[in-house]
Records
---
Amino acid sequence: MTSRRTHIVGAGIAGLSAALAVTEDGGEAVLYEAAPHAGGRCRTLQPAGGFAHDNGTHVLFTANGRALSLLKTVGARERWFEPEPQGLPLYDARAGQMRRVGLSPWSWLLPSRRPQGLALADLARILRLVFASKECPVASIIGKRPIMDSLIEPLTVAVLNTPPSQASAQRLACALRQLIRPGAGHLLVARNGLSEDLIEPAVATLRARGAAVLTGQRLRMLLVANGRVIGLALSDRTVMLGPDDRVILALPPYEVERLLPDLSVPTRFEPIVNVHYRMRGLERPRFVGFTGALAQWALIRRDHVSVTVSAADAVVDQDSAAVAARIWREIAPALRAVGLEASPDRQPETRVVKEKRATIRQAAEALPQPPVRPLANLALAGDWIGSLPATIESAVMAGEHAASVLHHARGTRATLSKDRALKTEDAA
Ligand SMILES: Cc1cc2nc3c(=O)[nH]c(=O)nc-3n(C[C@H](O)[C@H](O)[C@H](O)COP(=O)(O)OP(=O)(O)OC[C@H]3O[C@@H](n4cnc5c(N)ncnc54)[C@H](O)[C@@H]3O)c2cc1C
């Protein structure tokens, strides 16, 4: 009997999810990751001599069933918790006022949890958005209403990382239909950090199941013959595949395009700018939203505060120090309002992380989608596959789907013995 191995390229969330799916029933998986660590766009940075922080704050919702199930599988579900169970504190930087807003529409029954400016007429617009059947920008449904500022814009850039004037109403609607279910709108964050509370437990689970996670291994080229992959040309080795072996490319679209240039993939991206301030924070993390400011969200952890600016096209090329100084002046009063010592004139040590291709741009247009299995024994995964917002949830789902597609596919086996003739060095 020949062994059947699944070679997974990319150890971001999609690759880790695919590997967990493959190994769940005893399947054999090898992961190849170009970077020195797993996690991809979802990881903790530990600069030498600096303070550890996530590349950017990641939130999950209780609606994200697949992501939460992955956390459970790797024993990390309890590490994600709801920082603001009473509703999200929103600081209006223009008025200098803080109020709480419920994320679930059910909580709006309480006047104190309603988004500012919400009127009866807005409910009809919100319903049109939730059940959007035709593609159009989010802004064209909501219009210039006060709730654009207080609810729709923050929600759209948080979920789609694309401004409402361009963002796909249908993609947002997919997320909203999940979020409005009772109990689904609770916002969760990692207690300590993305690597400690998600990536490391996932890698440890995979290793315990016998999977190999090889870092520093960039896939340079796919070796293809007769419609199937026969080998992987990696940084320092070429791995030849057995007749029953499969490959999952869990990579961003631009890497898939480089490796398989005939495929049509999304080519436009949106940046996220993250600013991290080293300061005495809070033992129990808090999460604060902003309106009327460049800052959109702040996560307060024990020893730092992380600020997110999504859909950051307008600022990503600006001077980092100037952006950080502006944001500090904006957030200092809100930090004081939650009990921290923060003066607008005394900016703490700061680190700015610019993710220029944080996600694909999720505009109101048909995005190119290649077939999930473009070669007989190769499937694609990644947060950009499918019609859901590009998030941890979609990356988990895409990884699981790729594993399942290959598992159930007929005809992934090699037919030509000469395929094996190339110089080879086995994985693992
Ligand atoms: C700042 C920021 C904030 C975000 N906030 C949220 C949030 O709040 N909630 C949420 O759900 N999502 C959020 N996201 C999105 C989330 O991070 C992504 O959807 C998810 O991490 C994508 O995972 P992935 O595995 O599809 O891709 P990636 O994480 O990009 O993984 C791809 C992996 O492949 C590796 N690789 C690339 N080329 C090669 C090659 N040739 N050979 C081998 N390896 C290769 C990369 O190094 C990487 O590790 C955020 C993203 C960013 C950047």
---
Amino acid sequence: MAGTNVPLKCNCGAFEALLQNVSPRTGSHIHCHCQDCQTAARVLGAEDQLLPRAGSDIFHTTPAHLTLTKGQEHLACLRLSPRGLMRWYAGCCNTPMFATMAHTKLAFMGVWVPSMAPPAETKLAKVIGKVIAVVRTQDAPMGSPSLKEYGFNRAGFHVLARHVSALLQGRSRQTPLFDAEGAPIVTPRVLTKEERLAAQK
Ligand SMILES: [Zn+2]
Ligand SMILES: [Zn+2]
């Protein structure tokens, strides 16, 4: 059974993309409570899109499933440090969109679930599947609900399995976010150490 094509939209609607063939087999639904995801959301002023206890709702998949469809000129990229993940966002309204490596050697992309805008009749929870991992709960701020850490290794295994599968299909380096030479299509803004520390709580 083919997956569902899910439109992705920033908050203001100026930037749109399409994630094709979305299903629990083509990606993994995870919740990440790590300090870096929290810091990135804070820098972008997107804390209101976090789950309770500062979790990021993320769908791991491969970049070959992604097409940019509208407002590409708004796409921007943030790195918390020179070696940090590439955190792509819609600069028009600072909506987080994707996270990737800084290179195309690993076919990995995390998609910001709040940006998913499926047709009304589509049940997103069914399309992206149940949460297979809740990770880095030690970084979560105190509060409720209580969190149970699970699935870190499983999520990592899925990333590698998807990479190998993309490799075998000759699609591992296919991505609209990098050019043919493997350079990102926008120059990332890299936070200075001072900026990063100021954004951490
Ligand atoms: Zn926008
Ligand atoms: Zn994280």
---
Amino acid sequence: MSAGRIAVIGASAAGLTAAEQLRRSGWDGEIALVGAEPHLPYDRPPLSKQVLSGAWEPDRTGLRAADALDGLDLDLRLGTRATGLDVADRRVLLGADALDCDGVIIATGVAARALPEQSPGAHVLRTLDDALALRAPLAFPGRRLVVVGAGVLGVEVAAVARELGHEVVLVAPEPVPMERAIGAEAGALLAAAHRAHGVELRLGESVAGLVHDEGRTRGVRLAGGEEITGDAVLVAIGSTPSVDWLAGSGLDLADGVGCDEFCAAAPGVYAAGDVARWPHPVLGRPVRVEHRMNATEQGMAAARNLLAELAPERFGERSPFAPVPYFWSDQYRFKVQAFGDLAEPDEVRLRVLDGADPAAPKAAALYRRGSTACGALTIGVPPKPTRALRTLVADPRPWDEAVAALEAVPA
Ligand SMILES: Cc1cc2nc3c(=O)[nH]c(=O)nc-3n(C[C@H](O)[C@H](O)[C@H](O)COP(=O)(O)OP(=O)(O)OC[C@H]3O[C@@H](n4cnc5c(N)ncnc54)[C@H](O)[C@@H]3O)c2cc1C
């Protein structure tokens, strides 16, 4: 085929990796990388960690140096929002402009959910600009931060704010932090750690609304009527896939962009990263993974599979995308790492390796579905034993064998 154009929509982790993979695989046609944000592609995990704490300035979050980006020979369109997709004609609309393409990769990620009536003083945290806006009030000493939500984002921000010496109240309906991600048993260890670090945890409490004063958000009102006030409020209640621009395209947009096992949403149209939902061949159900490692791996897979569809004689066969899901979270001085599928297991086997200091938990856990380990988790455990547990999930062994490996993790 003649080298035409591939458009990658979304210039972040998944989109940039897809563009790089297209070049690495030998695509010598045009690549348009379109991103709504004005910034060069940057990494999000440091936003709730090093950027918020002030340890890093924004330029350290850049995903690639300017000369590496130049080397990709991209038609890089920053500050440009895709507004529509004509699937049959493979035409991407950019407002009044349009790009006719041979292939399209959708990598538009997710947007933070907000509470109704958020006014100045209330924050969300998804973008670099969000992180800098939240960092501003935390730059003054002795502030009080109210965090709504006990997911990864809420607890990471609570940890950073405590380390900066601020008062923190965290409100969430769940009984323990990160319950949905890691389950109740391991979540209880995190609750103890955050309490030991001085976070006031108001778990099992729902927020009914925000409290305003002179046009600013000053706190939250609980379902029972109690008001919790502070100098700033972080609303960390999850996200919504960025698919508005695809309305009317005919794609399956029930939860992100529905794809097949090759990450294809339609002929010549692929999706990757937080926005993509696909039937995971090993997990046996549709998943949409909002984690950093997946953005990279799926960006590469979508790029390879798109090329294989466009020119199989040159780029080979398509392959199903079947990663071992992975995420990490940094809180205080410990790291939480999880592999595989931790959702709704039949059993969780948690081993506390050192319970002496609740502020610095050290634990490992395996999650069983049927007769094998479907997930593994470590908290405050070094890389080598953590990697050993990953193997039990990547190459599932009988449960007894997996439990023996868990027992062998050094205390
Ligand atoms: C604060 C924070 C901390 C995190 N920490 C961790 C962590 O510790 N560990 C971990 O595993 N994961 C973490 N994550 C998750 C991880 O960052 C994401 O999984 C990853 O960024 C997903 O990459 P993506 O490219 O799919 O989507 P995104 O990074 O969301 O990028 C999508 C891009 O598309 C753009 N876009 C949207 N709509 C359009 C449009 N119509 N036209 C053009 N562009 C558009 C957006 O502006 C955005 O720049 C964190 C996320 C956040 C926000």
---
Amino acid sequence: MTAVNKVAIAGAGAVGLAAAIQLAKAGVEVDVFEAKPELTALGSGISLQGNALRVFDALGAWDDIRAAGFAFEGLNLRAPGPGAPIVAELPDVKTGGPDYPAAMGMPRPALAEILLDHAQRAGANVRFGAKVTGFAETADAAVEVSVNDEPAGVYDLLIGADGLNSTVRDALGVDTKPEPNGMGIWRAFVSRPAEVQRTELYYGGPVYIAGYTPTGEGTMYAFLVEKAQDRFGVSDEEATRIMLEESRAYDGPWNAIRADLEKGAHANYTWFTKHIVEAPWNRGRVVIIGDAAHSCPPTIAQGAAQGLEDALVLTELLTTRDAVDQELWDAFHARRLPRAKAVVEASVQLAQWQIDGDRDADAGGLIFGIAQQMAQPA
Ligand SMILES: Cc1cc2nc3c(=O)[nH]c(=O)nc-3n(C[C@H](O)[C@H](O)[C@H](O)COP(=O)(O)OP(=O)(O)OC[C@H]3O[C@@H](n4cnc5c(N)ncnc54)[C@H](O)[C@@H]3O)c2cc1C
């Protein structure tokens, strides 16, 4: 017995696909509508903490994820300047428990392909070029969903996993929206020098943070976090020039990164955002999860992990109860809101300390406290 028989999901990002996998595995009919014409996952690489890996295991996707990514433990801090000396080697908390590595880096397109494959194999119907444009609840507790301005079907539930600029969130009348936090990030997918075995961060120098994360045998993504600027119209050549310029203060593996940039590695730019929608995340039979409900600067790399946990908890409730009622929503919000909010607030605080140049702040203590909290299952 499940609380739903037929569900529509807006968005085929990691969060929408995770929800689709769990529902389809439980025998629920699932239609996933994705606005983009095909699966693309920009942004080069992603860092997935143990608690995200634990979710992939629950989905049945862990073996594929493990094979496609680069597992590592700990974090190195290096200093700017000649030789890029390692100034600290910090241990990680295993937020997924002892069965999973502390973290794993992987190319975003590989993650997207694995989750799409699992969703389709579980029986979910995924439609691309299909933007959810509206919905209306019917008198008999169902939701009529419109896609590309045409009626697309009647469902027991609509899950809005449609990301930062969520159409579903706006249509629900939720006013809380992502706001810039004042930081922008350059990212490039590059080759991995053999000495890079874990994430390494450089504090100090011309940008707030310079760093890189291994994503595979021969690959990693490199990033520079700067004061947010209007960089969106810059040409590819200009983007490369900016990344080269801003990284000159960093030695060590940055020399290899610059060599890749000079050979044409693509530099991608975006701003960090922050928001957390207060409870409830649902109105009747429509609910938002993932980046639609919360976002934060990736200062502790927990954004996707939180969205994946939203998907896991929501689908667990939907597949183990027999009604979509207030008790279900109360249980969902009690398990998800405090946890997602703690991550957003800590991530925003860490970023703000960087912006303020506050060197006395206890960043390590805050990160450790959140990691301890995430080590408890969602
Ligand atoms: C610079 C940066 C670095 C980050 N690094 C990390 C990290 O290292 N680790 C981590 O855990 N998190 C990280 N995050 C956060 C992470 O990327 C997000 O939390 C996660 O990707 C959100 O997934 P999602 O499925 O909710 O949203 P998305 O991935 O945005 O997916 C939403 C999907 O919905 C589609 N869509 C939109 N509107 C509609 C509509 N109306 N109808 C149908 N489809 C629609 C979109 O096309 C999109 O495919 C980072 C974020 C940023 C900005």
